[in-house]
Amino acid sequence: MIKSVIFDLDGTLIDSMHVWCDVDRKIIEKYGGVYTPDMSEKLKTMTIEQSSEFFIKTLNLNKTTDEIIKEVADTIFHQYRYEIPLKDNALNILNFLSENNIPFCIATSTHRILAEAVLKKYNIYDKFKFILTGEDIPKSKKYPDIYMACARLMNTGISETLVIEDSLHCIETTVKAGFPTVAVYDKFSKKDFPAMTGLADRFIYNLGELENIIKEW
User: Fold this and answer.
1) In angstroms, rounded to a whole number, what is the distance separating the alpha carbons of residues 176 and 160?
2) pTM of the model
């Protein structure tokens, strides 16, 4: 039985992955680097601190990690506050969980200021029990720490805590840690989707499919 739900944010609840590809390219090219597909693959598995350190080391920047973190957040804040849409049926599934007294939270590697901006834009910030970000849990989602922390805070066991994710490395982590996991299709991770469907307990193309999955679990 599912007693709580952990949602990823980018690519899962909101349609925002294009923003991250764009900002990574902008930062790298701004400081004279060349953005490559290999860099993109590396960056998408990193926390905020790790990606900022990557920029500093790769581009030989005379800047602090905090300065780069702020620069990235400032570059894309307007999009999070005003432009990025919710995924289809995101609000419906949150309402379903609320109506059935199933607590839910967000575990994201993105900046807290960005997560809060987009959630408040759609008036759903207060629906979540809490938000944990890469600023709260320094390890990347290649490690289960952020998911374990969420389960503890919601006071549910690992086998009772459903994780909803759109990235292969995250699904590898949650499945290995014992969390029931649903893979969500996102066009920016479509090349990994066959592998994701092979690992996850269930997979969906639309968040509207989650209601029946949770009822049946």
Assistant:
1) 15
2) 0.90
At 64, the amino acid letter reads T
pLDDT 10s digits, 36-68: 878 877 887 887 788 889 999 999 999 999 999
Query: What is the pLDDT confidence band of residue 176, given thresholds at 50, 70 and 90?
Result: very high
Identify the H or E element spanning 4: strand 4-7
Q: 8: how many CB neighbours lie within 10 A of its CB?
A: 26
Length in residues, the chain: 217
Nearest Cα neighbor of 94 from 196, 9, 24 is 9
Q: Is 48 exposed, middle or buried (0-12, 13-18, 19+ CB in 10 A)?
A: buried
| Percentage of residues of the chain with pLDDT beyond 70 | 100
Average pLDDT, the chain: 94
- Angle, alpha carbons 100-101-107 (nearest 5°): 110
Q: Tell me how far apart the alpha carbons of residues 8 and 13 are, in angstroms, rounded to a whole number.
A: 7
H or E stretch including 180? none
Q: How many CB atoms lie within 10 A of CB 55?
A: 25
Report DSSP state, residue 87.
Answer: P
20 pLDDT exceeds 90? no
DSSP at 16: -
Q: Give the single-character DSSP code of 199.
A: H
Q: Which of 97, 102, 90 is nearest to 4 (CA)?
A: 102
Dig out the tokens for 72 from the structure: 């990235």
